Amino acid sequence: MDVKKVLLYSAVVFVLYTIITSPVQAAGMVQTGFEGISSAAKGIGKFMTELVR
After folding, report:
1. What pLDDT, in 10s, does the model give residues 13-29?
2. H helices of the chain, where?
3. Distance (Å, rounded) from C-alpha 37 to C-alpha 25?
């Protein structure tokens, strides 16, 4: 089996296990992830705006 597939399946199983066993903690992790992505997007937008000026 390909190593990438094994890692992908392991990650999926871990995510499902986390969601099933502690949904509140999983929701907190998702919220933190989206906040990080949002912050990164704002930073890139600000950088591009300053670059154009």
Report:
1. 998 998 899 988 888 98
2. 3-21, 23-52
3. 19
